[in-house]
Structures are given as structure tokens and as C-alpha cells.
Amino acid sequence: MNQPGPAAPTDPNEDAFVAWAREHAVALSIPRHDDNYDDLAFIPGVIGKRRVIAVGESAHYLYEWNRWRTRLFKYLAQEHGFTTFVLESALVEGRLVHDYVAGADHEWDDVARAINNVWGVWAELNELIRWMRDWNADPNRPRELRFYSMDGSGNWMHARNVYAAVHAFAARVEGDLADDMAREIGPMVAELNLENRTEFAATAFRELIAAASLVISRIEQARVAYTRATSADDYDWGLRGAQILRDVIQALAQTEADFSIGVRQLWNVRDVSMAESLNWIREREGPDAGIVIGAHNTHLQLHPVREQKATSMGSYHAARFGRGDTLFIGTASERSVKGEPPRPDCNQAAYARLGPDCYFLDLRPAPESGPVADWLKVERPDRSNLRYQPVCAGAAWDCLLFHRTLSTGTVELPGFLASPPAEATGDLARFNGRYIILGFLAAVNTLDVRVEGDTLFTDGQDDTSGEVFPPYKVPLHYCADGRFRWSVWPSILDFHQAGEDISVSITTPGGAVYHGKRVGDAVWG
């Protein structure tokens, strides 16, 4: 009879960290309803006098992180005077959401469309936006709540939206400025995007960046006149929009053709711009406002991003504006949304050893020397979406929020994305196969498609991104507009047939389209 071999040796520093963390972790749950906030009674002791609470997420579109941030903001708004929620979504387009929360009479479809980066289709976030609007509608409210986005514009894939916003402001304040923008910036911006950026000459980019920078300077110089022509609020948005216009152009200009290298350049501009936007929000709302930020771990962490060591928003903001008033909370899980266990050598494997299925851990009281400190100082693999990047936990975060398992958020499709179910024509088996789809940030996405009975299924188990389609097996439904949809995911899939060749395109709610081709048979688990 075979006897089991000896257990693999453990890291004594990890053992010391786990023992220390077990004594300090606060066991939690993430309730689905907000009948009371008794489980968050420990939070005031953690945040102290800090007025900016940055809460990350290990992957986008997940129920647990969206729900906990919503709950945290409600609690802090009601009990501790917080006023402002900031999201990793486009600042320029997001002005419409800001105004909606303040009471503007916008249609919900327009609001959802303005929450880009594929955010405006998840019920957990939308519930917070509506709650903030209802709060502001109460004449007896103790203070007004504000909603901002802090990312750039157009998912950093184009500058058309931000150009339109700045040009509209220019047309209101000075005809010559609007005419100069239309002549010097408009034509190239209309054509330029992330996919075709390498087709434009360096000299054209230099001229475009110079023209955008001059627009910023002209707006700054004419502050008094432009404010008088509009309002102080419109002037603020106009100036910040012009700065973001320059940033988006700059990102497209310097992102190398080889995106495995160019991702660092785009990321650097993007995250610096987000840090500047957060500072802009803080200046508008004042130092005592109380802000909760929702963004991906890779933007908030106080540590370089990915193998390319790109600049994170958190690290830049801390270095540029100071970190004494900001608490950085990272999120982690044992299992990915696909149910995968963690790599044995990663941070998540250690977090999973503590015991509770959900807990909050403040890392700041950890010993400054000895084995616990030594474990926290080491850079090791850390799960981000469905991949790993090197992260030093002690350098990246003040606190950790852990949940053992993860689930996809609740889809709430706005009308412009919805279509009623219909009966598909033809043999669905013709779509069977494995498709390779190139995704955002150079991810290679693998989608398997196969018909079972009368139903078409997709399986993204081998996917490495988790941001384009469901990374697990799920039915795909044919709809009246001739396109396919998932009930658990907001993207839309189209099949394209040319003879025997089948290709696909997947459109996300933000308007990004990813293309793929069939490369062989589906690999079915």
C-alpha cells in the first residue's frame, strides 16, 4: 500500500504572517440587504480621521466587491458625514451621472451609457446611484451627495467624446477657440483610435498634442471671462476636459505597436491622469468631504503594475499629493470567478489559510521587523482578473478585504442593449469551435462554443482576461435583433460566416468591439 509522501515544506515567514493575521482579522459577511450596519462597527476605528477610502477589486464585474463598496459608502454617508463616491469610469462622459445624482432629469438609458468601462450594467452599482439620487431629493437631507468618475474618456481607445465635450464648451465661451479646435484638432481626432494609432506620423502627434496643450492654456488664461460666460462649475469641467483631451492623445501617441510593451506607456498616462482627476475632485469638494473610491486593485495599489512595472494611480497619487489622508484597501479571494484555486506560491494562497470565508485585515499594525514583516516585504504572484502579476502585499495595501469565493454581479441591461429572445434559424452546430479573441490590454481570450440539445453554450474556462465574456460555461441566447446574448453577462456576440469560415465579434456595453476567429474544435471540460 502506498503511503502518502511528506507534506511540502511551508515558508516559516508565511506561517508567522498567517498566525499574526488570524489574531487581527475581523470576520465579516456581505449582506444582500442594508437593514443595519452592525457588521461595519469596526470601520471607524480603522479609518480614523482619513477622508479618502480607496477600495479595490481583484477583478471587474463581481458581486462581492460592488456590493461591499455600496454598503460601505451608505454607512459612511449616514453615520460619518461622507459625501462623495468616485468610480473608475470616464470623467467626461460621467458628468451626466454626476448631474443625475444631483437631480437632473436624465433618462436612465443615458445614465447607464455614460457609466463606461462596462460599469453601468451591474445592479449593485446602479442601486447605489439611485440611492444617492433619492437621498439628494429629500429636502431634509443633512448634506448633498456627489458622484464622480475619475478615468479619462472613451476607454482610452479614442478622443472623440472628450473632444466633443471640450469643443461644445469652447463654442459657448469663445467662437475663435472653437474654430481653432475644429481646424487643428477635430480632423485627426475623428480618425484616431487605439487600433490605428501606429498609422499616424510622430510629427502629426506632436502637432496635435501642442494644439491640445494650447487649448488648456487659453482656457486657463481666460478663466474670468469664460466663467462669466458660463459658470464656475462649467469652467471647472471644461478645463479638466481639455486636460483629459491632451492626456488621451498623449497616451495614443506614445503607446508602442507591440502592446506587451506599450501597455506600460498607456497605463502610465492613464493612471497619472486618474490621480490628477482625483485631486481635482478633492479640490472641488473640499478636504472634509469624505470620499469612497471604487476601482480595480491594479489602479489603487501602492505598487507598480504587472511585469512591465507601470505606474499605478495609487502610487502616483501618494507620491504627488500625499497619502496621509487616504486608506488603500485591496481585495482578494481564494477562488477566482471560475472557481480556480490559487497558485501555491501566491499571496491569495496565504490569505486563504486564515480561516474565515470573509474577513477584513488591517496590515498597518503588523510588526516592523521579524518574520511577519519579512513575508509582507516579498513580491510574489498576486491574482489580478484571471492572471497573476507580481505584488508585494505590505507595500501595496493598508488593509485587505478577503472573500473566499467570487460571483458575477447581477446584470441590469439598459434598453439600448436589450433585445427580446427569439428562435434561431439554421443549425446552431455550425458555430461549434474554439475562438481566439484578442482583448483589451493584450489579453488573449479563448472562447469555446458548442451546441447541446437545442441550446448553444459558451465556455471561457481557458480565458485569461475575464472582461469580455463569461469565463465559465453558460448558455448563449439568440435575440430578435439577430445577435446572441448571455443572461449573466452584458456583452453581445455576433457570428460572421464567409463560406466555411466562421468568425465572431463581441461588443461590450462601452462600445468596444473585439474580433476573433475560429481556430479549431471546442475543448469541453
Task: Give descriptors for this structure.
EreA/ChaN-like  fold; Lipocalin; de novo design (two linked rop proteins); 3 domains; eight-stranded mixed beta sheet; 525 residues; alpha+beta; 18 strands; 19% strand
Counting DSSP H or I runs of 4 or more residues, the number of helices is: 18
Low-confidence stretches: 1-8
Multimerization status: single chain
Beta-strand residue fraction: 15-25%
Mean pLDDT: 94
* CATH homologous superfamily (4th level) name of the largest domain: EreA-like (biosynthetic domain)
Structural class call reads alpha+beta
Radius of gyration: 24 Å
In CATH's first tier, which class of the largest domain applies? Alpha Beta
- Sheet of most strands: 8 strands, mixed
Intertermini distance? 32 Å
* CATH architectural grouping of the largest domain: 3-Layer(aba) Sandwich
| Total count of domains | 3
Shape: globular
CATH domain fold name of the largest domain: EreA/ChaN-like  fold
Indicate the percent of residues in helices. 25-40%
* Largest beta sheet: strand ordering: 1-7-10-6-2-5-3-4
The number of E-state strands comes to: 18
